[in-house]
């Protein structure tokens, strides 16, 4: 049975990365280089932020040239939490299983992410789809499958410095 492998990030829609990124960096977060996705259905620039020693905590997403779903979100609701992203082991199986459970998808089939990026990862191939917010209590759930050679982005916090396991903090 297909499953969620890990939480990736909370995506925060912003009007301007140039304005917001310095504020998040001032809070002590580092980031990997921006990942531009100009083509539909994504149409945004993503900057994934990390807080040492944890993996990705947040991603700031800016509409691509004022177009696309992020632009529509900001015009309707203003800047703020846009979606929650997770990594799964088999997106096609997840889509079928979750569809049976009453969840509707934005796309009929997953879309390939240009450049093979998902949060702090780079992979040979990255597939994505979104669960319609109306089927999850108003939350847009972004679902990624990373295929082939999956690795941390070279500018990500090194894996040996990330927290793993289930021991409580301070233990």
From TrEMBL:
<dbReference type="InterPro" id="IPR037523">
    <property type="entry name" value="VOC_core"/>
</dbReference>
<feature type="domain" description="VOC">
    <location>
        <begin position="6"/>
        <end position="146"/>
    </location>
</feature>
<dbReference type="InterPro" id="IPR029068">
    <property type="entry name" value="Glyas_Bleomycin-R_OHBP_Dase"/>
</dbReference>
<dbReference type="Pfam" id="PF13669">
    <property type="entry name" value="Glyoxalase_4"/>
</dbReference>
<protein>
    <recommendedName>
        <fullName>VOC domain-containing protein</fullName>
    </recommendedName>
</protein>
């Amino acid at each position: 049975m297909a499953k969620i492998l890990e939480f990736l990030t909370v995506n925060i829609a912003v009007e301007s990365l140039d304005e917001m990124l310095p504020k998040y960096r001032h809070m002590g977060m580092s980031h990997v280089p921006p990942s531009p996705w100009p083509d539909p259905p994504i149409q945004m620039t993503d900057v994934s932020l990390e807080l040492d020693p944890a993996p990705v905590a947040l991603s700031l997403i800016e509409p691509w040239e004022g177009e696309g779903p992020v632009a529509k979100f900001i015009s309707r609701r203003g800047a703020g939490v846009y979606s929650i992203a997770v990594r799964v082991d088999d997106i096609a199986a997840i889509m079928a299983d979750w569809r049976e459970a009453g969840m509707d998808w934005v796309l009929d089939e997953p879309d390939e992410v240009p450049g093979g990026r998902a949060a702090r990862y780079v992979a040979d191939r990255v597939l994505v789809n979104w669960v319609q917010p109306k089927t999850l209590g108003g939350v847009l759930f972004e679902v990624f499958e990373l295929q082939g050679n999956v690795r941390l982005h070279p500018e990500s916090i090194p894996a040996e410095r990330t927290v793993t396991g289930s021991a409580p903090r301070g233990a």
